[in-house]
Amino acid sequence: MHRRPWPLVLLAALLLVSPVLYPVFVAIFFGTPLREVLAEQFRMNSGFRNFEVFALPVLMAIGTYFARRPGYFVVLLGSLHLMSRGLYIFATENDGSPLSSALLMVFFLGVVVAYFTRRKTRALYFDSKMRWWETDPRYRVDLSGKVLRGSGAPMPVIVRNFAIGGALLEGDFDAFAPGEIVHVDFDFDAQPVHLAASVVWERAQDSRRSFGVQWMEDPSGTDYERVREIVRELKSRRVPTTGGLSWWQELQGWLGRPPETD
């Protein structure tokens, strides 16, 4: 699954429409046209108050959706400010308006603050590697191949995923040196593929080792064009990609429970 987490999209959408929720409640409560309520609100409010009500939530929605470091602080600090403002309005105003809507907004912003203070949410905003929806898709494959290290004998490996920039390989071999250059050979659609790559990471699990490689070919070369052809073919076949969680796994993580995985 290669998409933006649904809690981010949902929160961004709710923040985007939140400026009109209170006027809608007022219009329904008093039976007044919404256009008149908005016009009166603009007239009665100060410029800064109109910024708080109409512009700040939009900025918060943008910060939520695009998941960048500055946006994190805009959303968190904006939510805390609007929460305190809503509590102040509820405690001081008594003009017959539906103040319960102010408490509802405070509750919603409290949920936003709780979500944004989670470690996993902070990681999305501060670590670009966690934003899997912005990376090139890595297609799940199961291809038998070989890895050649210098003048040594070829070692059998399994290509577990494949992307435009590299691949995940698995095999039984000694540890690699950081940045070591290797050659990866495998067959795709009965056609041999030969690619040079550098080892960027590795990990050991039981008697097997997994390692990630980055292709070394010149983007203008024929080898790199072969990589692009393979990626296009995998995409056309709708081969599943790595990264991301189902909506149920995301909800479990949001509630603080370990996601259930296959």
Q: What is this entry, summarized?
A:
This protein is of the alpha+beta class and 262 residues long. The protein contains eight helices and six strands, in the order ααααααββββββαα.
Q: What's the tally of helices?
A: 8
Q: What's the quaternary structure here?
A: single chain
N- to C-terminal distance: 14 Å
Beta-strand portion reads: 15-25%
Secondary-structure class: alpha+beta
Low-confidence stretches: 256-262
Helix content: 40-55%
> From the alpha-carbon coordinates, what is the Rg to the nearest angstrom?
26 Å
**Mean pLDDT, all residues:** 83
Secondary structure: number of strands = 6
How many domains? The number is 2
Please give the largest β-sheet. Answer: 6 strands, antiparallel, barrel
User: What series of H and E elements makes up the topology?
Assistant: HHHHHHEEEEEEHH
Largest sheet: spatial strand order: 1-2-3-6-5-4
Shape assignment: elongated
Observed structural traits:
262 residues; alpha+beta; Thrombin, subunit H; six-stranded antiparallel barrel; 6 strands
Structure description:
Helix content is 49%, strand content 21%. The two termini are 14 Å apart. The protein has eight helices and six strands. Strands 1-2-3-6-5-4 form a six-stranded antiparallel barrel. The model is unreliable at 256-262 (pLDDT under 50). The protein has two domains: 6-132, no CATH class; 138-236, Thrombin, subunit H.
